[in-house]
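fwd from M.: "can u put these together and see what the complex looks like"

so here's what she sent:
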Amino acid sequence: MTTNSIFSAELILPATGDAFKKLDPRQLVRNPILFTTAVVALLLTVLLAIGGESLSTPFQAQLIVWLWLTVLFGTFAEALAEGRGRAQAASLRATKSELQAKRLIGVGDAYEMLGAARLARGDVVLVETGDLIPGDGAVIEGVASVNEATITGESAPVIREAGGDRSAVTAGTRVISDRIKVRVTQEPGQGFLDRMIALVEGAERQKTPNEIALTILLVGLTVIFLIAVATIPGFASYAGGAVPVAILAALLITLIPTTIAALLSAIGIAGMDRLVRFNVLAKSGRAVEAAGDIDVLLLDKTGTITIGDRQAGAFHRLTGVGADTLATAVLLASLADETPEGRSIVALAQGKYAIRTSVLPADAEVIPFTAQTRISGVRTLGSLIQKGAVDAVLRAHRGVGQTPAAAELRRITDEIARAGQTPLAVARDGRLLGVIALKDVIKAGVRERFAELRRLGIRTVMITGDNPLTAAAIAAEAGVDDFLAEATPEDKLALIRKEQQGGRLVAMCGDGTNDAPALAQSDVGVAMNTGTQAAREAGNMVDLDSDPTKLIEIVGLGKQLLMTRGALTTFSVANDVAKYFAIIPAMFVALYPGLGVLNVMQLASPESAILSAIIFNALIIPCLVPLALRGVTYKPMGAGPLLARNLAIYGLGGLVAPFLGIKLIDLAVTGLHLA
Amino acid sequence: MLGPVERGFYRLAGIDPEAEMGWRRYALHMLAFQLATLLFTYAILRLQGVLPMNPRGLAGLGADGAMNTAISFTTNTNWQWYSGEAAISNLSQMLGLTIHNFLSGATGIAIAFALFRGFARRQASGIGNFWADMTRVTLYLLLPICVVYALYLIASGVPQTFVSSIDATTLEGAKQTLVMGPIASQEAIKMLGTNGGGFVNANSAHPFENPGALTNFVQMLSIFLIGVGLTNTFGRAVGKQRQGWAILSAMLVLFVAGTAVIYWQEAAGTPVLHNLGVAGGNMEGKEVRFGIAASSLFAAVTTAASCGAVNAMHDSFTALGGMIPLFNMQLGEVVIGGVGAGIYGFLLFAILAVFVAGLMVGRTPEYVGKKIESREVKFAVLAIAVLPLCILGFTALASVLPQGLAGPLNKGPHRFSEILYAFTSATANNGSAFGGITSGTPFYNGLLGAAMWLGRFFVIVPTLAIAGSLAAKKYTPESAGSFPTTGLLWSGC
C-alpha cells in the first residue's frame, strides 16, 4: 500500500460509517474535548427544539450542524487511521482461524490433529511440508525452509533449524520443504500473530505517556476556556446586554483545542501504522515514543556498518617464506571453507598469486572451524595446515609464541589491525608462514548517516568482536562516535546500563539468545525476526526484515510522531488568536461599539463572523487529516533549526491561516446569504 | 557572624535543618506556618484597641476587615482596603504586618528554592527543609539588606519614630496634622520583599514614604533586586547560568514592551482633555514630584514585580496605559514577579511552553535536563487555571451582584475595569489598587480574601508537587537534539 491511498474510496466509506459509530458516548468520552463539543452540540439542538433562543432558526441550525460536523470530523479522522490497518488485520485473522496443529503424543511421530487455539505452552507439534506452523515456538528437531510472507511480505524462504540463532518460528508461516518439530512457546491467544492483529487494528492501543500528558494539557486548556466563557454572561449583563447561549457555545468550541484533540489519536495510530508498513512491529506505543528520545545507538559492526562479509585483501609472508609457499598453504586451508571469507581467500590465491590448484587432494581431511578452537585447516599430504585467529594459532603450538617468527608475526598483525583489517595467522606443522589480511568493507553512505545522527544529537557506538586496534580503525573510517571492541554480551549490557545511568536512552538491535538481556535492558530493543524466540521476546520491537540498519529509520519515525503531535498542537493553539478577533467584536459590538475596531478582518456581520469562525474550526480538521496520517516532514537536523523551521510553519502558519480562512469563509457565507 | 543565631533558632525550635522533606511534608509545614502567622496577625488587628503602642487610640478592626488584611499580608499581596494612617496602630504595623512582609517574602523565595532543587537534584526524594529555608532567607538575605536600606531611607528623610503625628501650620495658615511613625523600617521590606503595603494610604506617592527622585529610583531598583537575582540563582542551581540569563531576557522583553506602552500612552495624554485645550500628557493622579516618566516606569515595575506599591493612581491612567498594569498582573506576575513567586510562576509557564514547543523537535520535552511529563503538565495547568478562575469568576460575580456594584464609585466600563483590577491584583498577589473602589465591605473583603488565598497557595502547592516530581527524575544530558532553552527564539517568544 502506498501513502497516496489514504483517501481511496474503500477506506473512506467504512471510515464514514465508523465515524458515526464512534459517537457512542462510551467511546467518545475517551476524548474529553470532542465529548465536550458533542455535549454543547446536543445542548444547542435541545435549545433549538424548545425555542429557547433569541436567534434566528436558520442561523442556529447552521451552528448546530457545524458543531456536529466538528465532532464527526474528529471521529472520522480516528476511523480513517484505524481503517488503514484493518484490511491487513482481516487477512491475518483468516490465517489464524485456519491453523491446525499436529500435536505429538507419546513417543515417535504419533500425533493428534487439533485447532491451534487449543495448543498450550510447552506442547510439541510436528510441521511437515506444506503445513502452516500452528504456534510460535522453537524448532527442537530438524531443518526446514519456511515461507514467512504472511508476516514479512517477503516471499523468499528462510531456513529454520534446531539449535543456534535461527530456531524461532512464527505461527501462520508455511513450511515449504522438510519437516520440523516445534516446541510451542506462546500462551494461547498471545502469540505473535495475535499481537500483530491487535497492533494493525489499533484495538489494543493504549495512550502513550506523552499522549496522556498532552491530553491533560488540552483538557486543562478546555477547563480554562470553559471558565472564561462561563463568566461572559456576567460581563454582558453588567454592560446591560445578554449573549445568547449559542454564541457562547460557538466561542467556547472555537477556543478549545478541538483541532488537535480531533487528530490526536489518529496521529498515534498512523505513527504505529507507519512502523508496521516499514515492517517493524512495536509492542507498544511507548517504544515508538522512546525511539524519538534515543541518545545512543548501539550498532553491530557486521551487517550494519560493514557489509556482512570480509574480503581477503593481501597475504603477508614472514621472512624466509616464499610467496608461493604461503599462497599454496592458504589455498589448501581454505578450499573447503565455504564461507564468503573463505571463498574470497581462494579467489585471491588463485587470482593475484596464480595458484592453479582448485580441488583438495584425495587424502585431505578437513578440520572445521569451531568457536572453541577458532582455528580451521586441513591435514593433507602428510602435513597439517592451520589458519585462524592469531592468538589461537600461537597457542596451538607449544613454544611457537617465543620464536623470532612469532615476534615478526605480531608486528605484521599489529600493522594490519591498525589499518582496520583482521589478521588470520597461517601455519604449517607448527611453523608460522604468514598472515592473511581480511578487510572490512564499509557500507556506502553510512558515514553520512552517522554525521546526520550526530546533528540530531545521537551518539553512535559500534559493537564488534574485533580487537581494539581493528575496531578503532574501522570506527574512524565509518565515522561512528565510539566503539566497543572484543564485546561480549555482558560488555554490551554493562555499556547500556552505564549510558542509562547517565540519563541517556539507548537503542540496539540483536538476534541471538545472548542478546536477550541487552535487548530487554535497552530502551528500544529491536529484535531481528530471524533471531531466536528469546531475543524476540526480550526486544520491544521486532524487525520483520531483519535489517539492523533500520534502527536509524526507527528513530526517525519516533521523532516524526512526536513532531507531528507538537506541530499540530501549536497550530491548533495559534489558531485561537484569529478566532478572538472574529467572535469577541461580534459578541460585544452591540454593547461596546468601540470594540468594532477589533474586527480587523472586516467580517460582514456578527452572525457571519461567528458562523465563519465555527466553519473554519470544523473544516480545518479534515484539511489536516492527511498531515496527521502522513506525519510532518521529518528532516534530520539539530533541534535549534528544527524548532525555528516548525515554529515558522506551524506557529506562524497557525496564526495567519485562520485570518485568511475565516475571511474567505465569511465572503462565501455572505455571498450565499447564509447569515 | 549570624551562624550562631541561626543555630540558636534551630535549637530553640527543635528543628534539624538537615532533615530533608518530601514535597507533601514541605507543603504541609509551609501551610501550617502560614495559617499560624495568619491567625496571629488576625488577633493583633482585632485586638489593637486594647493592645499597647496605639497612640492614635484606634479601635480594633472588624472580623472581615481583619481577616482580609491578615490574608493580604500573609500572601505577599498587601492589598489594603483601609488607610494605614487612619486604621492601623503602630503595634499592628510593626508586629502584625511587618513580620509578614519578611515572612511572606521569605516563603516565596523558599518555594522558589524548593523548585530549583527539583530541577537540580537527581533521583532525590526531598526538596529541602522548609524551616531551614525560611530561617536562612530571612537571616542572611532579607534582614541585612533591610537594615542598610532602612538606614539609607532615614538618611533621605523618611521618618522612623514612635511619634505618631506632628502638627504643622501651612503657608495659608491652616493647621495640618502630619501622621508619622516607624515608616523607614517598613518601607525597606515593603519594596525588597515586593510587598507593597504602605504605611500611609498614598503609599509611595507620599513624601514620607518616598521623599525624592533618588529614593524613587532606589525603590524601583529594590523591587526588582531579589526577583532579578533569583533568575541567576536558578541558572547556578541547575549548573547553567545561561538558563538564568535566558529567563531574565524573556522577562525583560515583556517588561520593556509594557513600560514603553504605558509611557507612550501617558505622555500622549487623553483626546478628551486635548479637545478642552489642555495640551501635554496625562498628569491626573500623578505626583508632580515624579511626573509622567517616573510614574509610568514605577507603575510598570510595581505591577510586573507583584509589589503593588504605587507612586501614582493607576485609576487615573489613560485607558491603554492602565491596561498594561492589568496585563502584567494577569500574566500571573511572572515578569520579574514577586520575590520567589515570579521565578516559580515563570517556570510553570516555561514547563508548558517547553512541553508544546519541545515536541516539535521530536523528543519528549525536557527543560534544564529534566523530562517534562504528564505529572508536571498536570500540576502546571492546575496552578495556572487558578488565575482565570479567580480573576474572571470573581469579577463576573461582582459585576452582577448588587454588593459588588455598590463598591466602585464610577459608572460604566471604567467601573468594570476597577472591579477587574481589584480581583486581578488580589489573585496575582500584587496588592496595588486601581483605586476608585470602596473595597472595605464584607462582600469585597471576603471575595478578595479568597482570591488572594487561592491565588497564592493554589499555585504554591502544585509548584511544590512539581518540585517533588522533578527531583525524583533522572538527569537527561543536553545534546544537539535537545530543545534549546537559551538563545533568541526562546527568550523572544
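replying to her w this: Residues 16 and 76 of chain A are 6 Å apart (CA to CA).
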